[in-house]
Amino acid sequence: MVKIDTVYQRVLALANKEQRGYITPQEFNLFANQAQMDIFEQYFYDLNQFRRIPGNNTVYADMVNILEDKIDIFRDTIGSTETALFTAKGAGYILPDTIYRMEQVRISGTQCEKLTAKDYNTVRESPLTKPSPSRPIYTIRSGNVILINDGVSDGGTGYVDFTVSSINMYFIRKPEKVNWSSYNISGADLYDSTNSDNFELHASEETKLVIKILQLAGITLKDPALYQAATAEDNKNIQQEKQ
User: Looking at the structure, do residues 18 and 86 belong to the same domain, yes or no?
Assistant: First the structure.
């Protein structure tokens, strides 16, 4: 976890608000959430890249292990007892907005095979490949709608009913939104820890958050020097990580 007030104070200090202009808490929160999602989404591209490169036997210096540790913070599960999280839509269910990527779906302990929407329909309708309780299938369509089929008829649809089946979903969720909040005393805005929300990213991402927020602030403040300095620092860190 990265404390939002630490990042906020560093950003204000580095942006030199007296000369460049003031970054409001509202602007900072917008920049902070954008920066957090940028860093979070980059994990998956980096993981794909580093898995194609020989690693090493040192766990704390192996990039794949480092990235997995950062992603582990966001791994979660939903069980069949939490059906209130789902909304029925046609023959499927709308997944919660918090789900970023599905990793695994199980019915009564049996892992479902993930298929594309096209293959899902082909497999479901073919006598030779149709799903069964020992080989269930699922797909996720646009609108974040999940369809699951175990070959057992349910009201003529053949789709699993979340209210009666033992379903567990293992997924990577999105980071919670961050928020820097304050209260005013004698004209001064003071940090309100009670109503603020910290970054969920790994503690090692603090510097990267500051740099990315400064890049966005440089655009808003129309300060090319600030943007270029932050971008140069960001590029240096990227090169160092991928050497």
Answer: no
> Residue 169, Cβ neighbours under 10 Å: how many?
24
Residues 6+ positions from 163 with CB-CB distance below 8 Å: 80, 83
158 and 214 share one domain? no
On whether both 88 and 137 belong to a single domain, the answer is: yes
User: Is the same domain home to 68 and 182?
Assistant: yes
- Nearest Cα to Cα of residue 102 among 162, 172, 37: 172
79's CB contacts (< 8 A; 6+ apart) are 167, 168, 169
Residue 143 belongs to domain spanning: 75-173
Q: Which of 23, 10, 73 is nearest to 208 (CA)?
A: 10
Contact indicator for 94, 86 with CB cutoff of 8 Å: yes
Number of domains into which the chain is organized: 2
Q: Which residue among 173, 201, 230 closes a domain? A: 173
Going from the C-alpha of 154 to that of each of 17, 42, 120, 158, 165, the distances in angstroms are 62, 41, 17, 5, 11
Q: Percent of the chain scored above 90 by pLDDT?
A: 35
Q: What is the pTM of this model?
A: 0.80
99 and 165 co-located in one domain = yes
What pLDDT sits at residue 117?
87
What is the edge-to-edge ordering of all strands in the sheet holding 99-107?
75-79, 167-173, 99-107, 110-111
Nearest to 32 by CA among 9, 59, 61, 13: 9
